[in-house]
Amino acid sequence: MKNPLHFPPPHLLTRAALLQPLCITLLSSMATATALPTRAQDVLEQPITLVAQDETVHSVLNKIESQTNVRFQYSRQLIGAGRRVSITAAGQPLGQVLHTLFTPLNIAYEPFASGIILRPAALADVTITGRVVDEKGAGLPGVNVVVKGSATGTQTDLEGRYTLVAPDNGTLVFSFIGYTSQEVAIGGRTTVDVNLAPDSQALSEVVVVGYGTQRKQDVTGAVARIEGEEIVNQPVQTPTQALQGKTAGVQITTDGTPNAQPVVRIRGTGTLLAGANPLYVVDGVQTTDIRNLSNSDIETIDVLKDASAAAIYGVRGANGVIIVTTKKGKQGKPVLSYNTTIGFKQAAHLVKMADAGQYIEYLRSTSPNVTIPTTTADTDWYDQLLRRAMYQNHNLAVSGANESVRYYFSGNILQDDGLAINNKFSRLTVRSNTDFTISPKFSINSQASFSRANTRDVNFGTAFQNSYRAAPIITAKEGGRYGNTSAFGNVGNPLLDIEKNNNRSYENRLQGNVGLNFLPIEGLTLRSAINVDLSFNNRRVYNYQYLNDEQTFLAAGGNQRNPQSSLDVTQINSSRYLWENTATYQRVFAEKHNLTVLAGTVMEEGNTNSLSGSRRNVPEDPNQWYLGTGDPNTSVNGSPVLGKDRRLSFLGRINYAFADKYLLTTNVRYDGTSKFNSSQRWGLFPSLGLGWVLTEEGFLKDQNVLNFLKLRASYGQLGNDQIDANAYITTADVNIPYVFNNAPVLGAVISQIKDRDVRWEVTTEYDAAVEFATLNNHLTGELTYYRKTTTDALIPVNIPALFGDPNNQYITNAADISNRGVEAALTWRNNVGDDFSYNFGVNATFNKNRIEALNGGQALFGGANNVTRSGNGVAAGSFYVLKAVGVFQNQAEIDAYPKYTFLTPQPGDLKYADTNGDGVIDPNDRVYAGSYQPPMYFGINGGLNYKGLDFSFVFSGNVNNDVYNYKRQASNAVTDNIESDFANNRWTPTNPSQTDPFAIRSNTPNSTYFIESGSYIRLNNLVLGYTIPADLTKRAHISSLRVFATGQNLFTITNYSGFTPELPGGPLDAGIEATTYPTSRTLALGLNVNF
Length: 1091
Prior knowledge:
Layout: H1 10-35, H2 38-43, E1 47-56, H3 57-67, E2 72-73, H4 76-79, E3 84-93, H5 94-102, E4 107-112, E5 115-120, E6 125-133, E7 144-147, E8 153-155, E9 161-167, E10 171-176, E11 179-185, E12 194-195, E13 206-208, E14 213-215, E15 223-227, H6 239-242, E16 250-253, E17 263-266, E18 279-282, E19 285-287, E20 298-304, H7 307-310, E21 321-326, E22 332-347, H8 356-366, H9 381-385, E23 389-401, E24 405-416, E25 424-437, E26 442-457, H10 460-469, E27 477-478, E28 481-482, H11 494-499, E29 501-518, E30 524-543, E31 566-589, E32 593-616, E33 631-637, E34 641-658, E35 662-673, E36 682-693, H12 698-701, E37 706-720, E38 731-740, E39 743-752, E40 761-774, E41 779-798, E42 809-832, E43 836-853, E44 860-862, E45 868-870, E46 878-881, E47 884-887, H13 891-895, E48 899-900, E49 910-912, E50 920-921, E51 927-928, E52 936-946, E53 949-959, E54 962-964, H14 966-969, H15 980-985, E55 1011-1013, E56 1016-1027, H16 1030-1033, E57 1040-1054, E58 1080-1090
Parallel strand pairs: 2-5, 6-12, 18-21, 48-50
Antiparallel strand pairs: 1-3, 4-5, 6-9, 7-8, 7-10, 10-11, 13-14, 15-20, 16-17, 18-19, 20-21, 22-23, 22-58, 23-24, 24-25, 25-26, 26-29, 27-28, 29-30, 30-31, 31-32, 32-33, 32-34, 34-35, 35-36, 36-37, 37-40, 38-39, 40-41, 41-42, 42-43, 43-52, 44-45, 45-46, 46-51, 47-49, 52-53, 53-56, 54-55, 56-57, ...
């Protein structure tokens, strides 16, 4: 066995490091002294007497020469023509006199046989510290700081701070893409702070890339940035909603439910059964949900779209990464700011249903045996359930900074009453961001936010579906009693569904981190940070007691009743802790070699526990809504659910740029997770990115057409472990009775077979792009091609029945899924004079999603009534239905047609194609008929500023995708209402339609008849603002005051007949309108004021 290496103790290394330069200096001095001839040394020992008062150096040297045989050799520039000195000597050695004379002048002397040579003294090195800020006082990370004329240099850290050893009379050069370079003389100082001014002729963007920042010019991956000021005035609940249409490659869908989490897809869907949502990182805290954030607190949002950019996050980055940086204080006096938006919202679009007259006519022709009441109403059920709702958002913040402390504190109150009655959402958020600079080498930063969200809701899915189906001839409510729709043979009264149910949810959430930064040597930053995300949820569901009698209804009967009140309580608590330790080394060599090296470890633990219970006959008084107040004989206690997962990761990154034109970025992450069996827990995820800035080449230096041109290409791999923590452990049900030896005994039976070797899905991505700026940087753009392939995607695989699984299958890694596409973005910005500026941008994404192979796995059905099927060669979540090819006009046509297995057709029924030609219409004739995933989606943005007036707009849309209008198909009772258009266009003997049937029958199958175009273009947001002139506001001690009007979801152009073509969902069920909460249109007024 080899002897282990032994290192000396750290304190001995420190002493050696301090003694080394001293020893070198002494040895050098001894060597120099030894080398001098004896006669030259004797020159300095000559005694001299000298008196000089305010004389030139030249005059003093002449007096010395007149007393000795010494002759001085020097340049006029060295001694300075006008430099004057005073000195007195009485018999001192010449060497002592020269030392007294030349030391203050920074002049060295060297004797030789015939005289003394004068030369500049060696410059003293000093440690320079400082901070580089932008025009707003915010620190600039990644600024190059170089000693002019040398290879010595460094870069600023995340706070804009730097430390550098340089000659005390040297000059520092500060350069940063997008800002004008500055040269600053050190002049003997030890602190040099710099304000860099924006360069309007440069590409001025810095992006966050995970555990650091990079100049946009140096980035080799696909990273997009959205500034906080672009979203702060939008009247939305979550920052994610405000990103819609802002950047290529990012598709966002949401409905109108208050506090709903938008569905985000970055470059398509790459999974079927695992999680498909991106990772969010808020000031270093990794999370899956940012609904607790206030838009006013956000400084920037950076989206890491490709595997090269996101590889640093390993198994959590397969679906992309969204990095949110919140605001921090800026240098200068404290700033108090208040932002508010107050307005109202209403349904953006509602389906027009048949009125009482159309409905009665429809009933008489389709269901002549139904008895129509003699007294009828004309009820608009949507009008009964929906309302004009209030929206308000208030944010108060104070911020500031000095050399030692930077701070930002804020409080936010948001209230959204919701479109539906008895629906309300409110949220309180407080935030604290502080940075402390203890010394040039030590700093501490912390971010913390607490939010409390309260929600009141009901089962709106059932209520909205019943509103679509409820008979308009039944009164909604009168004299405190409800119209009895179910007694008419129809669905339950949707108004009663809402008013006899009371759901309350409370969520308290705490997020934050504390980080320590240490700069032991120049260019090296060591950081250790603890990140915490805690969530405490409590949900209480109360159902009132009511009977189907005349006390509740205007007429007794029907089946809508709840004979016992009930209370269900669920409590879910979760915690996630993450400890990061990183070392970052930044250095600039020879003014051309820019190197940044990152290495680190990440340890993570997540815990979830939930507990539920219910009781009957709980009093109606809300103050008594506790499980202990109900009937103990009806108590049901849910089993506690506990979950834990852990991860351990090692990460590294190298960024290198040569002469700002040849770029290289490589990432590697080695991840281990407890979610898999010990043999499958570890995985290596690398990436490589290359870039070439052509405009830094000599052959493009002197042209005026292209201001910036870069080619980049990247490759990377990522993992996806968003599955259940025990996905590899087979489960069994216990205490199952069975007979053994003619006696009953209790045993266990397998409930679900699991694949013990299941592992993460792996996404491999190739990316190539060109970025450019032209016409004096007025026009900028980017064109990107990407190919993203997921292998080992989770999919069910059939297994023999003898294994004991009830479904004869288990989930394993088998499928391959691809997304290929092109992203394009163009932006034009220009200033006209000093008072007018404008911008216009457009982005488009072309994406093709395809399941390349199931590799023995089973196709997956999903969505309402299993309307989608994800199989070989089609997009995930594709509609799989019968093909409607017309309407039967008569019985003869029916008799001559292939037979139906699911109903007996009548004239006016839909006609379906016999696609397999077997003479029978059955489920085997289903075909793939499009999907919700759009082959193209886009965004259009623009704005202008004229003096104090500002205007901006955002459009977004989809092209050539499909949606399934399931709510029309679900209207299957003979007394269900119909849409007004259908009432006018449906088949009748006198209106032989070839497209719309006579009626939607109860067993109508899934078919292309219910598939419609999902293409649309929507005006997402419009803002018109005015900033009051400063000479008016300063009288009230107001720094700035801006008023604005804004609108969200103002109009949509689409051919879709439903509520909205924007229908969020998972990989298997997106694009299906069944019980959708209507989207809202918001109009609001706002105020931004700074003191």
